[in-house]
Known about the structure:
By secondary structure, this protein is of the alpha+beta class. The chain has one domain (4-40). It has one helix and two strands, in the order βαβ. Strands 1-2 form a two-stranded parallel ribbon. It starts with a strand and ends in a 9-residue tail after the last strand.
Amino acid sequence: MQFGLFxxxxxxxxxxxxxxxxxxxxxxxxxxVGYQEAWFAEHTGRPNF
Length: 49
């Protein structure tokens, strides 16, 4: 059985680079534990971005 990660990318920081770094860290951890894929939702038009 293969597992994947889906993240809504709902981060608390309004700083884009911080959100990117958190997403990347999540993907690296998912890879470390053996997940096959990682999907991150992209939300545009949010008031705090």
